[in-house]
């Protein structure tokens, strides 16, 4: 869950994406609250190997200030996975209790 304090929008951009076809995927949701009890699907990236820089599917925005990124993978085939970074538009701080260099980037490998 990405829920920066005071955010009115969260922007997620994938910079690398390579997951196993048919078995691995990332689902990105916009949430109405920080708990993400109510969601709206923004995108479903399943079984891709792509260059995110040239594909608009890999840049997403939640205009609620909350976003959920779900990654599902089987254990059979390992691929490079993905790297994504987020930023927020807010009226307050965008990161609490974290190192600014690593606050808004996450990486996951598959397999």
Structural overview:
The chain is built from no helices and eight strands. It is mostly beta strands. Strands 1, 4, 5, 7 and 8 form a five-stranded antiparallel beta sheet that branches. A three-stranded antiparallel beta sheet has the order 3-2-6, with no helix packed on it. Residues 96-102 have low confidence and may be disordered.
Descriptive key words:
111 residues, mainly beta, five-stranded antiparallel sheet, three-stranded antiparallel sheet, 48% strand
Number of E-type strands: 8
Strand content: over 45%
How confident is the prediction overall: mean pLDDT? 82
Helix content: under 10%
Can you summarize the main beta sheet? 5 strands, antiparallel
Q: What spatial form do the alpha-carbon principal axes imply?
A: globular
Low-confidence stretches: 96-102
Determine the N-to-C terminus distance.
22 Å
Q: What structural class results from the helix and strand content?
A: mainly beta
Overall radius of gyration = 14 Å
In quaternary terms, these chains amount to single chain
What is the number of helices? 0
Give me the strand/helix succession: EEEEEEEE
How do the helices and strands line up, and which of them pair or pack?
Layout: E1 7-18, E2 25-31, E3 39-46, E4 49-50, E5 59-62, E6 67-72, E7 81-90, E8 105-108
Antiparallel strand pairs: 1-4, 1-5, 1-7, 2-3, 2-6, 7-8
């Amino acid at each position: 869950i990405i829920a920066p304090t005071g955010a009115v929008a969260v922007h997620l951009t994938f910079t690398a994406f390579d997951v196993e076809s048919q078995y691995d995927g990332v689902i990105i949701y916009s949430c109405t609250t920080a708990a993400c009890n109510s969601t709206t699907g923004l995108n479903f990236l399943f079984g891709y190997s792509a260059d995110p820089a040239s594909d608009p599917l890999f840049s997403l925005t939640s205009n609620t200030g909350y976003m959920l990124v779900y990654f599902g993978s089987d254990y059979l085939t390992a691929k490079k996975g993905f790297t994504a970074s987020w930023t927020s538009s807010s009226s307050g701080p965008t990161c609490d209790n974290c190192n600014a260099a690593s606050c808004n980037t996450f990486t996951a490998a598959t397999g």
